[in-house]
Amino acid sequence: MSGLRIVSLLPSATEIVAAMGMADYLVGRSHQCDFPARVQALPVLSATKVRLDGTSADIDRRVSEIIAQGVSVYSVDAERLRALKPDVIVTQTQCAVCAVTPADLEEALCEWTGLAPKLVSLEPDDLADVWADMRRVGRALGVEDAAHAAIVGLQARLERIRRIASLAPHRPTVAAIEWIEPLMAGGNWMPELIEAAGGESLFATAGQHSPWLDWSALAAADPEVILLLPCGFTIAQSLADVPLLAARPEWARLSAVRRGRVFVLDGHHYFNRPGPRLVESAEMVAEILNPDLFAFGHEGRGWVRLG
Fold it and tell me: Is residue 141 part of a domain?
């Protein structure tokens, strides 16, 4: 392990590496990697071609335009990557819009001189896949025992949430909104987090990609709780997008809106990153759904009540 050099091109992978006690071996990161805080001092090896200012509708339009041209949403600094001489590069294939993929690395890898780095590509669809990816990273880094210990600890925390939440007398219906314009429901691991926290997830199926959501379906289901956690959006960004929701005639008629049960959560740093902090994400949902049973202290930092 001495002298091991790791590059992470995915925020959740950076957090996985850190959870195994291997953050000191990171030598490069993506432009999105920001936790733990010390990784922000590392060389940045990627960039997005999409302007991220404006509303979710603006960003969706720009992404669609780039994809229609048949080019990647991201660029990789191949020269800088090669200069760092990593032994392991961790990236993902789950979503070409969310982060750098192996395809984005093709130029750098095909021109590599000497021993090419080991490429670990993550593709989690549900919580079981997240644990499996953590094991794969642990094997690649030679720290399988540390990976196992981290996984066991996270699973125990999640199971404790599930056990306590089961004591609640009622499981409210929950709509997790992963994009605002156009409307999208939170899929993959999101239904599992909601169920563990004591809610009944609507519109999405665990292990399946996030589906587009019709306003008519949202209105017909009339969820008791709405969680706003757009992919890549901080709380402030999501709050700025709320007028897009309020402009819809269906919005004000929803029970969750009328009863003050709409919450804005930090999707960017928590729910959208399939790594260790998904357990903290579950804690946030548990606090929201069952405040009499849970008080983890995330309110104000990880989530706020709308209005």
Answer: no
Classify residue 44 by its DSSP letter.
B
pTM as predicted: 0.90
Q: Do 42 and 114 belong to one domain?
A: yes
142 is a domain residue: no
* Judgement on whether residues 157 and 108 belong to the same structural domain of the protein: no
Q: Tell me what the mean pLDDT of segment 18-46 comes to.
A: 96
Per residue in 264-285, pLDDT (tens digit) is: 999 999 999 999 999 999 999 9
Q: Do residues 92 and 99 make contact, with C-beta atoms less than 8 angstroms apart?
A: yes
26 lies in which domain range? Answer: 6-123
168 pLDDT tier (thresholds 50, 70, 90): very high
- Secondary structure string (H, E, C) spanning 110-122: HCCCCCCCEEEEE
Residue 237, CA distances (Å) to 33, 119, 123, 287, 292 in order: 18, 33, 27, 22, 29
DSSP string, 184-236: EE--BTHHHHHHHTT-EE-S--BTSPPPB--HHHHHHH--SEEEE--TT--HH
Domain identity same for 166 and 234: yes
